[in-house]
Amino acid sequence: PTFTSTSVSCGPLPRTCVACAMPHSRAGSDAARRSRTTDDSTAPNGGIHLVSRNPSALGGPPALLPGRTLLVPTYAPSSVVTSGTVTPTGSPKISLRETPQVNSSNFRDFRVADLGLADDGIMEIRIAAMEMPGLRELVERYGSRKVLKGARIVGCTNVTVHSAVFIETLIALGAEVRWCANNIHSTEDHVAAALAESGVAIYAWRGQTERDFWWCLHQCIRKDEWVPNLIVDNGGHAIHVIHRDAEDLLPGIIGCVEEDITGMHRLYKLNHDHMLKCPAMNTCDTINKSEFDNKYRCREALLEAIKRATSITVGGKEVVVCGFGSRGKGCCQALRGCGARVIVTECDPICALQACMEGFPVQTLDDCVKNGDIFITATGGRRVICRRHMDKMKNGSIVCNIGHYDQEVDVQSLRTPELRWENVKDQVDQIIWPDGRCVFLLGEGRLVDMTCGNGHTPFVRSIAHTSQVLALIELISHPDKYRHQVYKFPRYLDEEVSRLHLSRLNAQLTVLSDEQAEYMGIHTKGPYKSDAYRY
């Protein structure tokens, strides 16, 4: 890479600027973006910016730079930058694992697809931060106290614009972080570039191989003298690798925060087998997570992903939703709103009865597979849609998953000599049977909202990330309170997560009188429901 010198001047900010050392304008083209001079650095009210830190000391205090020369990497015509590789013309692909990178501050502890995308990432992060009120409120409340000072956090989550705001919130609260992606297809490269340019140790790019994935995770777990004492996981990958390959780190781990159902299965199994060597906080089964990150997330994101991938009209189509849990409910609400004819498949009689009471017919997949136009798995199970089902689907059927990673659709059974795969576009494959019939598979069976769409909306992710921040604060503030087992997220913290988001929606809470609270047997400030209450 070569470097173009760009002068940057930072103006006044409403709070400590954690991204002022980077250009905030967005030009219309790559060349314009890399050479444009800008002084537009004033954030919207309440905006959160990227941290500009001393690259020589990971996790050092934020530094507000009044202006500097930014060296934005560009690539000469003799090289082509692709997702996950740097390919000089006429040469074999070179993995990013083998390609040292450096940002404008001579910081080298990262791997991203293209550092030149940082400007685009900055803009989107600023916009997303405005829709993440819970994180903004936490910075306002605890930022000056640095409540996470001393926290060394290794994170393995989706690397998206929302998680970038989360990462920068942790840094603003005093934490040191090292981060990698938990999904080889969900990383937003411009966001990863923005984090790398700001001095975050980030190892993530879209289109990783399985080998890339594990390499990136190992780079984050241990670096020179740096070792983690807290874990933020989404799927149990980091906690699994530390238990398997880095047991010497476990005595120093204060706790782990997990927000994914698969990760929780892994933690509960470790706990059941008496092999869990650190406390773990379950933010997956919180009230807010269940409602917002599952039902409301899928209601917002499903249709966007399907339409981006296929441009199909959903109204009038017969859509089969496998599973009527929290995610399935959100999917069905969105599909019915578009005029689709929705059929539900379920194994749980309670969920099946709920679907019936909502007006959705409940059938088995074998009964409806021949007539369905779109098939969506949202069960959290394995091999929900198998080869025998897809053999019976009609021509042009669409299959996707929004439940559990890549386990719900049996993709491996489709990789046989008699079936021909044709890649229509990124994350859309047409699988052709010998008789000429075809089925469209989205995202290779992985989460369709993450692979084909923008995933979660910022507000929904603010709910989940605020829960994670409060869980981390709880663990580091009371290390002697928690033993080596899995703990539920406290109900009073769950209520606090909701409270932090109400002002964004112009909602005003009613305050109970002492008489009312005494009659109901609760405190005027909560918790307002017992742990047994089901929302």
Keywords:
single chain; 535 residues; alpha/beta; seven-stranded parallel β-sheet; seven-stranded mixed β-sheet; 17 helices; 33% helix; globular; disordered N terminus
Question: How would the blueprint of this fold be written?
Answer:
Blueprint: E1 2-9, H1 30-35, E2 67-74, E3 79-82, E4 85-88, E5 94-95, H2 118-130, H3 133-142, E6 152-157, H4 161-172, E7 176-181, H5 189-197, E8 201-203, H6 210-221, E9 230-233, H7 237-245, E10 255-258, H8 261-272, E11 280-282, H9 287-310, E12 318-322, H10 326-337, E13 341-345, H11 349-357, H12 365-368, E14 374-377, H13 387-390, E15 397-401, E16 420-425, E17 428-432, E18 438-442, H14 448-451, H15 458-477, E19 486-488, H16 491-502, H17 514-520
Parallel strand pairs: 6-7, 6-9, 7-8, 9-10, 10-11, 11-19, 12-13, 12-14, 14-15, 15-18
Antiparallel strand pairs: 1-2, 3-4, 4-5, 16-17, 17-18
Helix pairs in contact: 2-4, 2-5, 3-4, 3-15, 3-16, 4-15, 9-10, 9-15, 15-16
Characterise the protein shown here:
33% of the residues lie in helices and 17% in strands. The chain has 535 residues and is an alpha/beta fold. The protein has a 7-stranded parallel beta sheet with strand order 8-7-6-9-10-11-19, sandwiched between helices. Strands 13-12-14-15-18-17-16 form a 7-stranded mixed beta sheet, covered by helices on one side. Strands 3-4-5 form a 3-stranded antiparallel beta sheet, with no helix packed on it. Helix 5 (189-197) links the parallel strand 7 and strand 8 (201-203). Helix 2 (118-130) crosses helix 4.
